[in-house]
Amino acid sequence: MQTHVGLVRHTNQDAVGAEVEGGLFVVCDGMGGAAAGELAAHMAVQIFLREAHRGGPDRGSVIANAALVANREVYAYAQDNPRLRGMGTTLVALSVGVNVPAKANTIPLAITHIGDSRCYRFRGSTLELLTEDHSLVGEQVRLGEMSEEEAAASPMRNVITRAVGTAAEVEADLLRAEGLEGDVYLLASDGLTRDLSEKEIAELLELNDASLETAAEKLVQAANDAGGGDNTTVVLVRVGF
């Protein structure tokens, strides 16, 4: 895990958390002035891990519900503190199955997200985006009204359509997947993907495949070398039996 304030921002409003033994990983990217975004992100990480730790037979439902609880509690806190109203955060989280039988060929995974922080899968030498940005330009791309290149350059790319804590209720997307031995999953705030192309990210992952810690450091450094226009947070998780 790596997080960096970048070269332009004065504070880091990203937050990251993990419960490695439980196979839980989460990244949040806060928004709001007067440190409200930083608070929202850190609150969401703590609440998410607390709720997801409770467990249950369906890990996907557990982590999606944990994201919704984080939304309710962050929103309620802001309502009780007028100077914080409007604060919010993105959230992307990964649950990796633990105690998987040795004879299994795959490992069950679940991903939940709200906002435009992303989850990618790096398998072999191919990087695949698994989440869909909850953003204005993301929706326009999916509708065919804008290209990926136009979206990357759009002045509206900061406008997200879902966030944790900005409304009493929010919808959390949930994806279930089967991980293969050696798969690497990348959780990242948009500071990474705004400054680096997916091709550049894949090349850095391939070059530093032996060490995920080094790969995370290289990704953050590359984002800063490309301008460091935002906070950048990276979590890399390798699937293994």
From TrEMBL:
Gene3D superfamilies membership: PPM-type phosphatase domain
Entry superkingdom: Bacteria
Residues of the PPM-type phosphatase domain: 1-239
SUPFAM superfamilies referenced in this protein's UniProt entry, alphabetically: PP2C-like (SSF81606)
Family matches, as InterPro entries: PP2C, PPM-type-like_dom_sf, PPM-type_phosphatase-like_dom
Gene Ontology molecular function: any one: protein serine/threonine phosphatase activity
Name by which UniProt lists this protein: Protein serine/threonine phosphatase
Species: Terriglobus saanensis (strain ATCC BAA-1853 / DSM 23119 / SP1PR4)
